[in-house]
Amino acid sequence: MKILYGVSILAGTIIGAGLFSLPYITSVVGIRVMGGYMLFLGIVAILVHYFLGEIALKTPDFLRLPGFAKFHLGKNAQKIAYVSGILGMLGAILAYLILGGEFLTALFSPIIGGGTLYYTSAFFIVSSLFIYFGIKAISKVEFWGIVVFFILLGLAFFRGFGEISVENLFFMREGEFDFFLPYGALLFALWGAALIPEIEETLALGEERKKLLKIIPLGIIVSLVISVFFIVIVLGITGEHTTPEALVGLEMYLGDGVTSLMLVFGVLVIFTSLIAIGLTVKKILWYDLKIDKNLACFITCLVPFLFFLAGVKDFIVVIGVVGATMIAIDAILVLLMYGKIKPGKMRFLTYPLIFLFILGILYEVIYFFA
């Protein structure tokens, strides 16, 4: 039961905003390229998370990635982990704000009017209140929100089964091909490293803790299977009408009822995930970095919203940049730590992965600022 619980928690955490980008990205690069990316980065994600699991088992309890980095690599590595972790989570909050605003606009704009800025601002205000007051209870519904969302996804599959077309699955947008597009978004969509220490601590002591190394690959494989299922349903039904946030394009095929329900629970999943990440950032700034509580909350909530107001509103670009840079830095730190505890495997396994992530960072920086 503990393995099943751990797999569900890890998969439930991984499945988030990144999932909604995958059908549209597949329509840009084609299902063959996307399939290759999912296979390759799925293996990479399993390896990096597995390595982190081994690191967690060989490190004192109640530490997270910055603590692991300090223990194995020193204070400078800890500082890098703090910077990459905080910036990565602030980027994720921005992505959640964009997506939540889009979902709310699709739900309520046809009824009461108002544009995306109005609904994103409302989403920002409500989520900021939850983060400021430290309301944790809502996180308890996160798992069940995801469960209900995927029940609705299954309903959408049966409702729209006749609409799924093999031709749609192989649809590609003319003139938009970007081979590198899936890289950062998929890293974002498959990243669940923050939960590895949490799961390890729930497994108690002794042999039970070793179950972590079984949970990690299973959790990521489940996430990959669900991602493939989501791509098949959304792209298979909507084809050329697939939207960047996935759900809005389903309305013309499934009708208002099913799509609205999916949007409601999509908002719930995004909202609870945003609160969980926001509380984590606030605590890191407040407890770990000794920043005033109110200032920590101000940074956590307002910085992503200011980026939105400044015009950073492309959901796929945001998760791509976060995945290819901040998450890649965290992955490099994991690989360097693994090299410390398993030096014999460093040369032929972790060095090529480190090189891959560095190339990805360089490409993303050049691509983003070009």
The CATH architecture would be: Up-down Bundle
If helices are DSSP runs of H or I spanning 4 or more residues, what is the number of helices?
A: 15
Query: What is CATH's topology name?
Result: Amino acid/polyamine transporter I
β-strand number = 0
Number of structural domains: 1
The succession of helices and strands, N to C, reads HHHHHHHHHHHHHHH
CATH superfamily: Amino acid/polyamine transporter I
Report the uncertain regions.
none
Helix coverage percent: over 70%
Give the terminus-to-terminus CA distance: 50 Å
What amount of the residues lies in strands?
Answer: under 5%
Using the CA coordinates, give the radius of gyration.
20 Å
Provide the residue-averaged pLDDT: 87
Shape: globular
Can you tell me about this structure?
The protein has 370 residues and is an all-alpha fold. The protein has a single domain (2-369), classed as Amino acid/polyamine transporter I (Up-down Bundle). It has 15 helices and no strands. The chain has helices at residues 2-14, 17-29, 31-57, 65-73, 75-112, 116-133, 142-159, 166-169, 181-189, 195-202, 212-238, 251-288, 293-309, 315-341, 346-369. Helix 2 runs antiparallel to helix 3 (31-57), helix 4 (65-73) runs antiparallel to helix 5 and helix 4 packs parallel to helix 14 (315-341). It is globular, with a radius of gyration of 20 Å.
In summary, what is this structure?
The chain is an all-alpha fold and 370 residues long.
Please give a handful of descriptors for the protein shown.
370 residues; mainly alpha; Amino acid/polyamine transporter I
